[in-house]
Amino acid sequence: QVQLVESGGGLVQAGGSLSLSCAASGRTFSRRAMGWFRQAPGKERDFVAAINWNGGSTYYADSVKGRFTISRDNAKSTVYLQMNGLKPEDTAAYYCAAGNVWGEMRVVVSPFNYNYWGQGTQVTVSS
User: Fold this and answer.
1) Taken in order 105, 106, 108, 111, is the CA torsion positive or negative?
2) HSE-up of 24 (CA within 13 Å, CB side)?
3) DSSP assigned state of 88
4) What CA–CA distances, in Å, run from 57 to 38, 76, 104, 114?
5) Whole-angstrom Cα distance, residue 88 to residue 11?
6) What does the pLDDT read at residue 123?
7) pLDDT in tens, 12-64
8) What is the largest CA-CA distance in the chain?
9) Of 15, 20, 36, 21, the residue nearest 98 (C-alpha)
């Protein structure tokens, strides 16, 4: 069992930065793939970024590539999402997720491949 708690969301002006954290409980964090997803009101939950168990492989959605960076610290059982150059269209609830599979991007971007989810943290970007 893995419990995930996100933090770091808030209100920021366009062009600003935020850093999200996701703290995990349980002994299996270091063996799990971790992902960040986001969901705006009335829209589906979309893939943002993912990282494999040791941080050696990452994927990003095209919409955030070059602006967001995912990282992890297995010693602290925490995954991070550094968000720079924020845009109003980045406004959403951001969720971290833990999964057991890794591979091609088509696998990593699917929320169905993640077993555990946090409660989410709201990010609002004003124009």
Assistant:
1) positive
2) 28
3) G
4) 20, 19, 11, 17
5) 11
6) 98
7) 999 999 999 999 998 899 899 999 999 999 999 999 999 999 999 999 999 99
8) 41
9) 36
Question: Which tokens hold the place of 71?
Answer: 């990282």
Q: How confident is the model at residue 81 (pLDDT cuts 50, 70, 90)?
A: very high
Question: Could you tell me the two tokens for 78?
Answer: 């925490």
Cα radius of gyration (the chain): 13
User: d(Cα 9, Cα 50) in Å, to the nearest integer?
Assistant: 18
Cα dihedral 67, 111, 99, 97, rounded to 10, equals 60
Tokens, residue 73 = 């610290």
Q: What is the pLDDT of residue 27?
A: 84
CB 50 within 8 Å of CB 70: yes
